[in-house]
Design a protein that fits this description.
Helix content is 70%, strand content 0%. The chain is built from 5 helices and no strands. α1 (5-27) runs antiparallel to α2 (34-59).
Amino acid sequence: MTPTLIGRWQTRILLLGTLGVLVTIPFSLNGEFVYFQVLLAIAVLGCLWDIVYNQLQTLRWDHDWPATLQLAAGIWEAFFFYVPFNFLISNILKIGWLSAIPFDKFSLHYICIWLTVFTASQTLMRIIFPRWRFHGGEWLHK
């Protein structure tokens, strides 16, 4: 499947809005709702990254985005989210919600979300939405 930009966005929002929320609930049971803010920020930044990924995909000879590149993208997104974005939010904009999460807790939360979403996109989405693969990843289409 060669995902379209709209397909990437729809799939990301669907999976983070369902499975991402389910994975985040145990992290926030002790009253730390900052994990839901992290989930929302991951969704927003991920949609911005999808624009870059969509352009990079057009440079590949087969215009495809294999699973190994998806895993690498997850690592890159985590780094970009925690290091430069955390610096920007905490130091320049003076919003301290992300710096309230230690790196080890953030990493565990992010890894759980990313592996759940990645696994679902490679398995569950193909079972529940069989036409999803043939419409560029769009599960809502014309």
